[in-house]
From TrEMBL:
Domain of life, source organism: Bacteria
Ranges of residues in domain Tyr recombinase: 235-432
GO MF terms, alphabetically ordered: DNA binding
PROSITE patterns given in the database record: TYR_RECOMBINASE
Family: Belongs to the 'phage' integrase family.
Organism annotation: Paracoccus alkenifer
Annotated protein name in UniProt: Site-specific recombinase XerD
Keywords: DNA integration, DNA recombination
GO biological process, one term: DNA integration
InterPro entries assigned to the protein according to its UniProt record, in alphabetical order: DNA_brk_join_enz, Integrase-like_cat_sf, Integrase_catalytic, Integrase_DNA-bd_sf, Phage_Integrase
Length: 451
């Protein structure tokens, strides 16, 4: 239906009770008014490059006058001219919006880039598509603090020279701390490399999150960051030397008596040595989202222990050797708590530092919980236990979803996947050999017993 383009005719048009009603004006083809239950707008419609386009010219106020109608008609004429000349206002608007979004994205600060990366779900590996672990988020935050003075800068202002200089500064600070502690400078820093890994990850996340084909951050800059990161992360290698394992074991068995949490420290440290477990899987970590090991996770009948929701997002089952079973049974008999490593009052220590610091004072052997894990792995290699079983013992393999609890079966997550499977029963004999070796007599250990 066509209507005159006059104030009176427009004011007489009724509002529909629902939806919309369109009226076209007699004075210009394609120019009309859209009426809804509560509003009215001028619109223009015409084909451009074979596609019909309808755009809003302007919204109408409650009161209109001749001047308003004149300006609206001029806008409709301009649109008509653009359409005739092949200019698609919808495409142009989308292009402008995309450019505005790109400009806004280019202004994202490094602080927001780190936050977006931390908040994003995992993109690969075990747990893909799930939120990052609390420990990972803490590590990302700690890495961002290495760039504290950059956090409010747009990421596009960070240059390769800035990155290289910051890497040198972090390494220099680490070497200065080593020299102050009486150690030799190394010219590298695991913390510097970790900071660069997370900086690169945050930058890559900005680029991958953009719908634009042109990267927000120049790949060359990200490449400079990547060049500072070793292909394989540097790892600490400290462990208890083979000849001193019996000395350390004896000190743990006898040197913690009478101390607060002494029995907890003793049993937990020996448990860590004999299983190679991560301390968070045993003692729990509220800040990292790990629950402590409970008696529900210890199966005395099958002589195995289960670590829940481990670092690689799976449950991990291990058989226990004879000595470890006996130790756990004694602990269970005296336990007043569901938590395995709690004291006679049911208390759980915040960490095991009071235990391993005491052993260091007694023997000079400084062994943190992760040093015990490395010691375990070193002994496995010394006993010539296969690499596949080593991965199974250290939980460096992927548990088949939903099957582990029933079938005790895990699958190697490397190139052997699909060909080799390791069951908990396959690890029982190696675990007993490891236990026997770890608990050998001190005199025998001093003699450097061969594997």
């Amino acid at each position: 239906m066509k209507v005159p383009y006059t104030k009176g005719a427009i004011d007489d048009l009724p509002h529909p009770e629902s939806g919309q009603k369109i009226y076209w004006f007699k004075e210009r083809s394609g120019f009309g008014i859209r009426m809804t239950p509560s509003a009215r707008s001028f619109i223009f419609e015409k084909r451009v490059a074979g596609t019909k386009r309808r755009v809003t010219v302007c919204k109408l106020p409650s009161e209109i006058d001749a001047r308003f109608l004149k300006v609206a008609m001029r806008k409709a004429s301009d649109l008509d001219s653009d359409f005739t000349n092949g200019i698609d206002p919808v495409a142009e608007a989308r292009k402008a919006a995309a450019e505005a979004a790109r400009q806004a994205e280019a202004m994202i600060t490094l602080r927001d880039a780190f936050k977006r990366y931390a908040d994003a779900d995992k993109q690969k590996g075990a747990g893909k598509g799930r939120p990052k672990k609390p420990r990972t988020i803490r590590d990302i935050h700690a890495a961002s603090e290495r760039f504290k003075d950059w956090l409010d800068k747009p990421v596009t202002e960070i240059t390769g020279d800035m990155v290289r200089q910051r890497y040198r500064e972090i390494v220099a600070g680490a070497d200065a701390a080593r020299v102050k502690a009486g150690k030799a400078a190394t010219g590298h820093s695991a913390q510097a490399e970790l900071a660069m890994r997370y900086l690169r990850a945050a930058m890559n996340h900005v680029n991958k999150s953009s719908d634009d084909d042109t990267p927000i951050i120049r790949p060359k800059v990200i490449g400079h960051v990547g060049n500072l990161v070793p292909t394989t992360p540097r790892r600490k290698t400290r462990n208890i030397s083979d000849g001193r394992i019996p000395e350390w074991v004896e000190a743990v068995k006898t040197g913690l008596d009478g101390r607060e949490f002494g029995s907890v420290y003793r049993d937990a440290l020996l448990f860590l040595l004999l299983t190679g477990a991560r301390v968070s899987e045993v003692m729990g970590s509220a800040i990292d989202g790990y629950a402590p090991l409970t008696w529900a996770d210890v199966d005395f009948e099958s002589r195995k222990v289960t670590f829940r929701d481990t670092k690689n997002r799976s449950d991990h089952m291990l058989p226990m050797g004879e000595w470890l079973v006996a130790m756990m049974q004694n602990r269970k008999a005296a336990s007043v708590s569901d938590v395995v490593f709690s004291d006679e009052a049911g208390r759980v220590p915040v960490n095991l530092r009071g235990g391993y610091d005491r052993i260091r004072d007694l023997t000079g052997i400084h062994a943190t919980p992760h040093d015990l894990r490395r010691t375990f792995a070193t002994v496995v290699a010394r006993l010539d236990i296969s690499e596949i079983k080593l991965k199974g013992l250290l939980n460096h393999i992927r548990v088949v979803d939903g099957e582990a609890a029933e079938n005790e079966s895990v699958e190697i997550a490397d190139t052997t996947a699909g060909y080799v499977s390791v069951e908990v029963k396959d690890l029982r004999e190696p675990m007993q050999r490891i236990e026997d070796y770890m608990l050998r007599e001190a005199a025998e250990g001093a003699g450097g017993r061969a594997a």
